[in-house]
Design brief:
With about 250 residues, the protein is α+β, with helices and mostly antiparallel strands. The chain is built from 8 helices and 7 strands, in the order αβββαβααβαββααα. Strands 3-2-1-4-7-6-5 form a 7-stranded mixed β-sheet, sandwiched between helices.
């Protein structure tokens, strides 16, 4: 194992702990994957059977693009996770990291016919960036791959109807950044709906300006990539609780 793989294993294991810290874990289910540096044919995924708090750099499972385990592991991998992640990793060179969650707020919006509205701070930031994929049952049938890829297209945020949320990124930090924005959008929408009070509309004109406004905001980060500052801050928090995930 070279240093680049060791580093990405530690970062991915940290991401699992961060997801749990954020309340996004779901027992032993759901998945976060990242491509192995220097190899487009291999990526890392969590062992099926472990809670996110038990995931470490050393027990992450390396698989090929067809979902076959390529190194010795004491654990299997989740078939549904393999179908979703292998399909996207295989088709999207820019999707180095993919995260999928079943959060309550995310699933609530995924079950609503209208999907995510552009009427809160976070959802406006995601205007025209969110794709939708219709529910076809548990994602274990190979035939769904093409439909999934067609639904996602070139976007990095996907609401799986009646199912949950999925985000992609050029890095682990960017995937986390996208997931946080999508999750927060759903949380606010669900919270607002629970008040039963009229909603203040946001015009399409304002929403259309968001991408330009966001560029001004991101310019203050210098040469930092999307999510790098946020991910580093969250990693410091989980490190203070438990840094055992760093075991390579």
């Amino acid at each position: 194992m070279n240093q680049a793989e060791k580093d990405i294993r530690v970062q991915l294991a940290a991401c699992y702990r961060i997801f749990d810290y954020m309340g996004w874990s779901e027992m032993i289910y759901n998945h976060i994957t990242v491509k192995v540096p220097g190899s487009d044919d291999h990526f890392l995924i969590n062992p099926y059977g472990l809670h996110y708090k038990e995931v470490t750099a050393s027990n992450l499972v390396k698989v090929d693009i067809d979902g076959q385990i390529v190194e010795q592991s004491d654990y299997p991998v989740n078939p549904a996770g393999m179908l979703i992640h292998s399909a996207i990793h295989g088709a999207r060179d820019d999707a180095h990291c993919i995260g999928h969650i079943h959060s309550t707020a995310g699933m609530t919006v995924a079950c609503q016919q209208e999907g995510l509205r552009i009427d809160n701070f976070y959802s406006v930031l995601l205007h025209k960036q969110v794709a939708y994929h219709d529910f076809q049952g548990i994602t274990v049938v190979e035939g769904e791959k093409e439909d999934l890829l067609s639904s996602l297209g070139s976007k990095n945020l996907l609401i799986l109807r009646s199912h949950g949320l999925l985000t992609c990124g050029r890095s682990i930090a960017e995937m986390f950044f996208n997931m946080n924005a999508l999750q927060r959008s759903c949380e606010i929408q669900v919270s607002v709906d629970q008040t039963g009070r009229p909603i203040v509309p946001v015009s399409t004109a304002i929403a259309d300006k968001t991408s330009e406004l966001l560029k001004l905001q991101m310019a203050s980060m210098g040469n930092k990539g999307a999510g790098e500052l946020e991910f580093a801050a969250m990693q410091r928090l989980v490190d203070r609780q438990d840094d055992s995930y760093k075991d390579v």
